[in-house]
Amino acid sequence: MIAPNPSAGPRHSFVERSLKIAGHRIHCVETGAGDPILFLHGNPTSSYVWRAVMPGVARATGRRCIALDLLGFGKSDKPDRLRHTLHLHRDIIAGVVAALGLSNIVLVAEDWGGPLGMHHLVHEPQLYRAAILMETFLWTFTFADDFHPKFRLPFRLMRGPAGYFMVQVFNLMVKKLIPEHCPITEEGIRYYMDSMPTIRSRRAMLELVRLNPLHGRPRESVRFIEEIRARLPGLRLPVTWLMPSPGVIVSEDYPPSQAKFERFKALLPGLQVKPFGPGHHFLAEENPHRVAQLVSETIREKGLAAV
């Protein structure tokens, strides 16, 4: 395992706020001033994943950096009887954008934050200026195309009845998945554990696993991805993809996933792919300095920085 990166510790001095969105309390953090950069996390992390990224980006770009905790994650509400859908999570993001009056947004997203944020972006492009994506997906999955054999059995189990015990009871997504795919301090992993301290509070993690569009199911998730892809060819704002080596979602260790990404690029002929360097999945944990560097560099290149 790679040695923990002490620069990704839990201390920060962000402004924190709670917003009431669709009847749920949504936690946000921010730093800086100016036009916004909206940071979206994935599963099983929270806005905390950006803690060592946002201050440097705010200084380098003269922009206001904002990150929210998706419903069910971090310090946001964790309803244990709610039916989770991708449209619900997208609507939470849209509600935060509206509540804060955001425009001229640069989207920065990883993992599930990618499709959730991009769904809002392609339907409300007038609110955005650019998107920067990493370790995420804007396509549906099959085991053959997307999953290295070592990931297939755990994912099958999590999608089935055993998933409740793996994700909610034993909290393996936090205790095992994060440490295996990035360096993280004990303080850092403790934050993620403490933010979802009970079996019931971990429900959103399991729901997102089961909402992953795999082999045509669930149909609602497939349609959600199709809605994004249908609008990508007409998108007129720049999209940049930070590509780590070896990576996990698009992985050098699994060539079919690279071929899938090459096919995806045909939908966005202007897509810019930037090499990240060594990295796996949780890039903002693994190398926050590099994430901040590339995000800031991209924003400057697009003429979107204020400094």
Describe, in plain words, how this protein is organized in 3D.
The chain has a single domain (6-301), classed as Rossmann fold, CATH 3.40.50. Helix content is 41%, strand content 19%. The chain is built from 13 helices and eight strands. The protein has helices spanning 54-61, 86-99, 113-123, 143-146, 149-159, 163-169, 172-181, 186-195, 203-211, 219-231, 255-265, 283-286, 288-301, and strands at 15-21, 24-31, 36-40, 64-68, 105-111, 128-136, 239-246, 272-279. The model is unreliable at 1-10 (pLDDT under 50). It is an enzyme of class 3 (hydrolase). One of its GO terms (molecular function) is haloalkane dehalogenase activity.
- Structural class, from secondary structure content? alpha/beta
Query: Which stretches of 5+ consecutive residues score pLDDT under 50?
Result: 1-10
Strand order of the largest sheet: 1-2-4-3-5-6-7-8
Mean pLDDT: 94
Distance between the termini: 38 Å
Largest sheet: 8 strands, mixed
Instruction: Say which CATH homologous superfamily is assigned.
Output: Alpha/Beta hydrolase fold, catalytic domain
Total of helices? 13
Sum up the overall morphology in one term: globular
- Please tell me the CATH architecture by its name: 3-Layer(aba) Sandwich
Helix fraction by DSSP (H/I, runs of at least 4):
40-55%
Beta-sheet strand percentage?
15-25%
CATH topology assignment: Rossmann fold
How many strand elements? 8
Count of individual domains: 1
Protein name: Haloalkane dehalogenase
InterPro entries: AB_hydrolase_1 (IPR000073), AB_hydrolase_fold (IPR029058), AB_hydrolase_sf (IPR050266), Epox_hydrolase-like (IPR000639)
EC number: 3.8.1.5
Pfam families: Abhydrolase_1
